[in-house]
Write a structure and sequence with these properties.
The chain is α/β, with parallel strands linked by helices and 448 residues long. It folds into two domains: 166 residues, Aspartate Aminotransferase, domain 1 (Alpha-Beta Complex); 232 residues, Type I PLP-dependent aspartate aminotransferase-like (Major domain) (Aspartate Aminotransferase, domain 2), CATH 3.40.640. The strands form three sheets. It has a seven-stranded mixed sheet with strand order 4-10-9-8-7-5-6, sandwiched between helices. It has a four-stranded mixed sheet with strand order 1-2-3-13. It has a four-stranded antiparallel sheet with strand order 11-12-15-14, with helices on one face. α4 packs parallel to α10 and α10 crosses α12. It is globular. It starts with 14 loop residues before the first helix and ends with a helix.
């Protein structure tokens, strides 16, 4: 049975969309990116309909946020039921069941041994800021290590760790003192010009062999913040030994290993957390994005002994809002009862099909990922591996014109991060449209 979407009925953007875009441009901050002129009217599952009635197949899910699909009935039902009881009371100062219930679910699900504690935020950036404070407060150490290519958010604490694009940091400094960056485990473009695995995973040893020989003692490092799979940096999957070596270093020197699962967690990689693909137990876990299927919610999970700060040391007016907590509980039910397994199965299908496209189109240099967190790196030449920067944005725009929602990341990568409820038929359709766009682009390039 053929999909009823995507279906493009008007020029893009349509008449109503243009009116809203014009108003938005007049009254909102120029800092918003606005990747292409999508003006959403409603969403259902993997279908997005704009305000002019055009329907799209969504393979970016609000930047990996709509993890159960748009307006999943069970998530909507949970939100409606809670909204009829009460909308808000500050979880920092008072108690309610969903706050405690969600903390229990996350603590029990987190792959950390022993007793755990949870702190709720409104977003991923806030979760990162909370973890920075937590690490320094517990260890009484000043230094924090992050990675080039990392994206941890845009608040002043989070942006100090972010190292994804100059535009995100330019003219906002000085940033938090004591933050240092080192290269990530990016085998396709090894920062040390080495080859896996004869390199012996040197990238994971760089902190000890470079920073700790010239800048600081390991006993001064409070934490290492790392994305198990880099998100905005280009959907980069490091070698399994990368995280294992980081874990060994942090354990030897009592450094907290903080894993940013904001984009990679909640079942997206076929496991609850991406770090589980590397057989590593972290000290602190950061969640947001898909945690509440689209409602604002972030969480910091750690061993209880690390989150031993006194009452009033940290708080949040809206973090753990009851509507968001109920949405998160419903989301966890859906993930655990089938969506996580579907991510694994549909991710395998998606990878298989995209790797076949790599054989067909010279524009594709690399296909990588886990589960439904898949990146396609675009290049100008396979020998030089010169990044196809502009092409990635143009291809995302052309896919939009054909009814497929994709987003670039890194310098030159197209990310595929649909909801975990995606079907095989929707995977087939997405790859078919992507192939059409690549084919048109390559023919255009050859004709120049």
């Amino acid at each position: 049975m053929a999909l009823s979407y995507p279906k493009i009925k008007t020029e893009l953007p349509g008449k109503r969309a243009k009116e809203i875009i014009e108003k938005d441009s007049q009254y909102t901050s120029s800092s918003y990116i606005k990747e292409y002129p999508l003006v959403i009217g409603r969403g259902e599952g993997a279908m997005v309909e704009d305000v002019d009635g055009n329907q799209f197949l969504d393979f970016m899910a609000g930047i990996a946020v709509n993890i159960t699909g748009h307006s999943h009935p069970k998530v909507v039902e949970a939100i409606k039921k809670q909204s009829e009881k009460f909308l808000h009371i500050c979880g920092t100062d008072f108690y309610y069941a969903s706050f405690a219930n969600l903390a229990e679910r996350l603590a029990k699900r987190a792959p950390i041994a022993g007793e755990k504690s949870v702190f709720f935020n409104n977003s991923g950036s806030e979760a990162v800021d909370t973890a920075i404070k937590l690490a320094r407060h517990y260890t009484r150490r000043p230094f924090i290590i992050a990675f080039f290519g990392a994206f941890h958010g845009r608040t002043m604490g989070a942006i100090s760790l972010t190292s994804s694009k100059p535009s995100q940091r330019s003219f906002f400094g000085p940033f938090l003192p004591g933050v240092y960056h080192v290269p990530y485990g990016y085998c396709y473009r090894c920062p040390y010009n080495l080859e896996y695995d004869s390199c012996r995973i040197y990238c994971a040893e760089a902190i000890e062999k470079t920073l700790c020989k010239s800048h600081m003692s390991p006993e001064e490092i409070a934490a290492i913040f790392v994305e198990p799979i880099q998100g905005e940096g280009g959907y980069i999957v490091p070698p399994i030994e990368f995280h294992q070596k980081l874990r060994d270093f942090t354990r030897r020197h009592n450094i907290l290993l903080v894993v940013d699962e904001i984009q990679s967690g909640m079942g997206r990689t076929g496991k609850f957390l991406a770090i589980e693909n590397f057989n590593v137990e972290p000290d602190v876990i950061l969640l947001a994005k898909g945690l509440a299927s689209g409602l604002p919610l972030g969480a910091v999970i750690s061993k209880k002994k690390f989150m031993s700060w006194k009452a009033g040391t940290h708080g949040s007016t809206f973090g753990g809002n009851p509507l968001a907590c109920e949405a998160a509980l419903a989301t966890l039910d859906l993930i655990e009862k089938g969506l996580m397994m579907n991510a694994l199965n549909m991710g395998s299908l998606l990878m298989e099909k995209l790797k076949k496209l790599k054989e067909q189109y010279s524009l594709i240099g690399d296909v990588r990922g886990r589960g439904l967190m898949v990146g396609v790196e675009l290049i100008k030449d396979r020998k030089t591996r010169e990044p196809a920067r502009q092409e990635s944005h143009e291809i995302a725009m052309q896919a939009f014109q054909k009814g497929l929602l994709l987003l670039p990341c890194g310098e030159n990568v197209i990310r595929f991060s649909p909801s975990l409820a995606i079907s095989a038929q929707e995977v087939d359709m997405a790859v078919e449209i992507f192939s059409e766009v690549l084919g048109q682009y390559e023919r255009k390039r050859e004709s120049r």
